[in-house]
Amino acid sequence: MTVHSASGAAASGPVDEAFIRRALDDADLNALRMALYQATGDEELLALPLKQTPMYGGALKQTVIEGGAAQAVKDRALRFLLQLPADFTPVQPSDPDLRAMYEAFRDESLTDKDWSYRRDLAAFDEHPRLARWNGERPAIPEDFEVAIIGAGFGGIAVAVQLQKLGIPYTVYERRTDLGGTWTINAYPDVRVDTTNFLYQYFFEKNYPWTEYFARADEVQGYLEHVARKYGVYEHIRFESDVTSAVFDEDAGNWRLQVAAKNGTAHLTATAVVSASGLFSTPKRLSVPGIEEFGGEIVHTAECTGEERIDGRDVAIVGNGSTGVQMMSSVRKRARNVGVFQRTPQWISPRDRYGEPIDRETRWLLDTMPYYWNWYCYSIATMRLGGQLLQEPDPKWKAAGGLVNQANDSYRESLVKYVQTKLADRPELWPKVIPEHAPMARRLIVDNNWYGSLLEDNVELVTDKIERFTPTGIRTADGKERLFDLVFTATGFAVQKYLWPTTYQGLGGATLEDRWSDPAGGGPRAYLSLTVPDFPNFFIMYGPNSQNRAGSLIVWMESWARYIAQSMIALIEGGHRHLSVRHEVFEQYNERLDQAMLSLIWYDEGSKDRNYYVNEFGRQQVNVPWRLEDYHQLLERFDPADYDFA
């Protein structure tokens, strides 16, 4: 039997009824229900009983189909797939129909604000979040060009927008390949910790990922695929390091100094987009005696993948996302591993982490019309409830609670998870269970970190590192442990948003000086994207940009659209440059700082040792707004917020 995909292509390999049943048994049945309804118009599918299944201690809720109705969905889907014609053509739903299906998906009513944010989460448009001209494309000045610095997710997102609009641009990448952080990081078992069904561009449909959480090389390959497919690759200048950018007030453009392998070039650009990313500058370990150590010290951001681990005594300093992710792999190869923990972290399980996408599931994604769209929507909307975890409830706390009911329940579930994983080592519980609330710091995915602590060749060290010795590390209790190799998983200097480029705007102002002023509280921007006195300058993943629960790539696409809309405003209006007005910038940041005070990041016990909070005591990484509110701010470029020249 041959079953064709919705695109008309024959399925690869033998597919029989048993194969299809296995695919349906592992499907997201609510996503399948909506895909089937959309393909058939069968109204009975909308009347099936639903229930909300709590996840992670009730912090999140998944909508599932109740009882025997689940089997009914699988039976109907089986019949549909067995009879699927080769010439089936998917149809894009109208906005009213899509909104009605969204509401039926979780049996909920959406406000206009909710609908506006969610509209593109199922990615039915050919290119969601695409900037468009307000009519026919006007003539673009011959000298108009946008310089994009960095060829990672952010830089490519901006480049695709400009490519679609026909606006000239060049991407400057200081390395020999694109990919940003996915080219930099080559430490053991490096992979995404957000499912690829969220960590992807939504204009590139149903990419054939091989795992639910892709490894770095697959992500890098994906970015190269996108860059080539959408015409961006030929606009990238590799081994081109933009060391400085100075705004020329007389000419009204930016003068760039670019260090390349053939020498230094001096170039001009109408606008500049910094897409160097938040996690680009390694944070160095500063400990007495480190220069005396006779072994190897490697920051995880500088791993090459060629490090000699087998049979050696290895230290991992840090138990953030990277240290936790790499530890199990290192443990399997090393003779002994010392894990140096400064601050306990909430380390949680994640569904399907480390699992391959099997042939049945890949077939269903490729074959069942609309299933990929609804599967993405299901995951994206399930995570929306995570925002509640960051919002303390004064009444709950007054009654003796810690944060709010959902967060406290989540804490209980995480504590039980730790105690279950370390059931044979209860003496470790107080060492690894944090005092701070979940979500006050970045939540970390368990890649068998707890399981590795049970192994004979792993030691958890919680005493403070006093100094390095020529042969190892001595802790505050006076004990010296011997090591050949030390991995410093100490993260990134997140205050260095624009490294390694220096920027000088109007009147000689530099961003480095402005953002290092204690009176300003560190890096700030309007909408996380732009700063007064720096005309035609934008930042991808800038200050206070990290979202609270959704997909980072959705926001990459949203920021890129906003930047493209600003270029449209310049060109259509016949302007040379624009700069956000000072009062707009100040008012926005006042509202932002005020909103931040009501969230978990400033709660007692959460503020210290938290990379979200900078040296001036200000939360500079996350955005405080709920996703639908931040979306509303970014959806349309407002010329009234800017001064034009």
Describe the 3D structure.
With 645 residues, the protein is an alpha/beta fold. The protein is built from 19 helices and 23 strands. A five-stranded parallel β-sheet has the order 5-4-3-9-21, with helices on one face. Helix 2 crosses helix 3, helix 5 (112-118) crosses helix 19 and helix 6 (153-165) runs parallel beside helix 17 (552-573). The longest helix has 22 residues, at 552-573. The radius of gyration is 26 Å and the shape is globular. The mean pLDDT is 92.
In short:
By secondary structure, the chain is of the alpha/beta class.
Q: Which helices and strands occur, and which strands form pairs?
A:
Elements: H1 17-25, H2 29-40, E1 50-55, E2 60-65, H3 69-82, H4 95-105, H5 112-118, E3 146-149, H6 153-165, E4 169-172, H7 181-184, H8 216-229, E5 236-237, E6 240-248, E7 253-260, E8 263-269, E9 271-274, E10 296-299, E11 313-317, H9 321-333, E12 336-340, E13 347-348, H10 359-367, H11 371-382, H12 394-398, H13 405-421, H14 429-432, E14 444-445, H15 449-453, E15 458-461, E16 465-468, E17 472-475, E18 480-482, E19 485-488, E20 502-504, H16 511-515, E21 537-539, H17 552-573, E22 578-580, H18 582-596, H19 627-634, E23 642-644
Parallel strand pairs: 3-4, 3-9, 4-5, 6-20, 9-21, 10-19, 11-12, 11-19, 12-15, 13-14
Antiparallel strand pairs: 1-2, 6-7, 7-8, 16-17, 17-18, 22-23
